[in-house]
């Protein structure tokens, strides 16, 4: 039985391990941390439970597929619920709206609140849905290589590509699609789902809204950590071996074919290696291949995040699971992130509260707040100095939006900076998605899932094709497993 070594236990690594174990490979997962899940982890503080990383769950069919393959009842491992709303939006001008699951209802509400003709939103969402089905699924579900040209689906996709998807930025496309600045800003936000700048990223990213607004959002019972826990349990049940506190220090090769991994100073033979580690670090540290590492750096890094984990000793009925407090000058926010490489003066604020659904995540009459702002990738920043500045702004904006005095309600606090993200998850510069999509061809320059140079070396996870985010990490795992015979 061929031995497979998987480096890292993020969602991509876990899903790959399950798929390969079901193909009768001898699979071992090596994780540097004491816990599994990579960014998808959790922690407790002062009676509050926090999901540490990703907080949005869409496309549940990706995780369901793994349990179907394993012929296991998913409900014994994992349950989730469909949500009636995707997000509550608070704008700097005082207006607010809840994005309902029903797209028509959302469009009608936006017409009442902002004066945006509902037909504009309905048309946009329908076009996004079609684009995702005709173009997105092709790009996301197949390897990024020449075989894509020979597929019949490719020609259908090419015929469905609208010129503005290629020629315009997402912001320009949205400005031509909507009448009101609020709707432009709301739909610009979807560029951040892969760490990009809506004023530079191509309009093709408009299809991302399809996942949330057309297909719906969901809540994993127990929080996002329940995804990690379910995958680890399933992996163990199908024979995957796990090794935590096991940092891979080197990928060994012989005649440009992988031969094994060095873990905590000890060599482990492997016939196939799958790296779920950031692609830059894979080349730079594990392969000591500076040429390929430098090639990765030619692409602009994605944004990162600065996160506050707050225990709040009261509840806010105005807030739901997902909440956005938009900045007044969205363009300036992204200029400061990508051009100036600084934490924005007035960032957009995202607040996630899982205690809205899991009451045991916070003490009685309290809430657990995951508060995140977009940040530049780490590059010699002093995050401790910037922490208090951004905290003051966040509190000021939330006080204004909710007419409260938030500071007196914060009874527990922890933080996570881009530097912390780099240190804990080996994401180079703390970039959440590896590289950004701030150019028309950026998606086509992402690392393929199979190494061109080293035989039997594969890559999965958010820093490689098809991209970052939980749904795409699942897809990268399928691409890798399907390629390994």
From TrEMBL:
<dbReference type="GO" id="GO:0016117">
    <property type="term" value="P:carotenoid biosynthetic process"/>
</dbReference>
<dbReference type="InterPro" id="IPR014105">
    <property type="entry name" value="Carotenoid/retinoid_OxRdtase"/>
</dbReference>
<keyword id="KW-0125">Carotenoid biosynthesis</keyword>
<dbReference type="InterPro" id="IPR002937">
    <property type="entry name" value="Amino_oxidase"/>
</dbReference>
<dbReference type="GO" id="GO:0016491">
    <property type="term" value="F:oxidoreductase activity"/>
</dbReference>
<protein>
    <submittedName>
        <fullName>Phytoene desaturase</fullName>
    </submittedName>
</protein>
<dbReference type="InterPro" id="IPR054840">
    <property type="entry name" value="hydcarot_desat_CrtD"/>
</dbReference>
<feature type="domain" description="Amine oxidase">
    <location>
        <begin position="11"/>
        <end position="484"/>
    </location>
</feature>
<dbReference type="Pfam" id="PF01593">
    <property type="entry name" value="Amino_oxidase"/>
</dbReference>
<comment type="pathway">
    <text>Carotenoid biosynthesis.</text>
</comment>
<dbReference type="InterPro" id="IPR036188">
    <property type="entry name" value="FAD/NAD-bd_sf"/>
</dbReference>
<comment type="similarity">
    <text>Belongs to the carotenoid/retinoid oxidoreductase family.</text>
</comment>
<keyword id="KW-0560">Oxidoreductase</keyword>
């Amino acid at each position: 039985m061929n031995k497979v070594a998987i480096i890292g236990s993020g969602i991509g690594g876990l899903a790959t391990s399950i798929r390969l174990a079901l193909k009768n490979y001898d699979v071992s997962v090596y994780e540097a941390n004491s816990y599994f899940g990579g960014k998808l982890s959790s922690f407790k503080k002062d009676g509050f439970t926090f999901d540490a990383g990703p907080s949005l769950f869409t496309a549940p069919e990706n995780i369901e597929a793994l349990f179907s393959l394993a012929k296991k009842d998913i409900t014994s491992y994992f349950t989730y619920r469909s949500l009636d709303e995707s997000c509550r939006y608070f704008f700097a001008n005082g207006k607010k709206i809840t994005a309902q699951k029903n797209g028509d209802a959302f469009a009608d509400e936006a017409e009442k609140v902002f004066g945006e003709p509902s037909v504009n939103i309905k048309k946009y969402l329908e076009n996004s849905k079609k684009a995702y089905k005709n173009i997105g699924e092709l790009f996301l579900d197949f390897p990024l290589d020449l075989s894509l040209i020979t597929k019949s689906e490719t020609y259908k996709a090419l015929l469905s590509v609208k010129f503005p998807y290629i020629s315009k930025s997402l912001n320009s496309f949205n400005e031509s699609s909507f009448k009101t600045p609020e709707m432009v800003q709301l739909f610009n936000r979807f560029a951040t789902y892969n760490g990009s700048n809506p004023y530079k990223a191509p309009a093709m990213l408009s299809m991302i809204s399809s996942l949330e607004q057309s297909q719906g959002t969901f809540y994993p019972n127990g929080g996002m950590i329940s995804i990690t826990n379910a995958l680890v349990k399933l992996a163990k049940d199908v024979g995957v071996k796990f090794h935590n506190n096991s940092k891979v220090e080197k990928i060994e090769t012989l005649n440009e074919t992988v031969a094994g991994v060095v873990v905590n100073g000890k060599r482990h033979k492997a016939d196939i290696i799958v790296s779920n580690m950031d692609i830059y670090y894979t080349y730079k540290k594990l392969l000591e291949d500076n040429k390929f590492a430098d090639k990765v750096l030619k692409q602009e890094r994605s944004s990162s995040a600065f996160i506050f984990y707050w225990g709040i000793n009261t509840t806010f009925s105005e807030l739901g699971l997902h909440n956005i407090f938009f900045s007044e000058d969205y363009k300036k926010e992204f200029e400061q992130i990508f051009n100036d490489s600084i934490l924005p003066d007035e960032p957009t604020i995202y607040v996630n509260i899982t205690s809205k659904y899991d009451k045991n995540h916070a003490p009685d009459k309290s809430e657990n707040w995951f508060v995140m702002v977009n940040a530049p990738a780490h590059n010699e920043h002093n995050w401790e100095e910037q922490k208090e500045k951004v905290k003051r702004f966040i509190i000021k904006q939330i006080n204004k939006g909710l007419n409260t005095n938030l500071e007196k309600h914060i009874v527990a606090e922890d933080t996570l900076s881009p530097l912390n993200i780099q240190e804990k998850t080996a994401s180079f510069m703390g970039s959440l998605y590896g590289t950004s999509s701030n150019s028309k061809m950026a998606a086509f320059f992402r690392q393929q899932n199979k190494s061109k140079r080293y035989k039997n070396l594969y890559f999965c996870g958010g820093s490689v094709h098809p991209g970052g985010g939980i749904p795409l990490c699942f897809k990268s795992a399928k691409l890798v497993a399907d390629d390994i015979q």
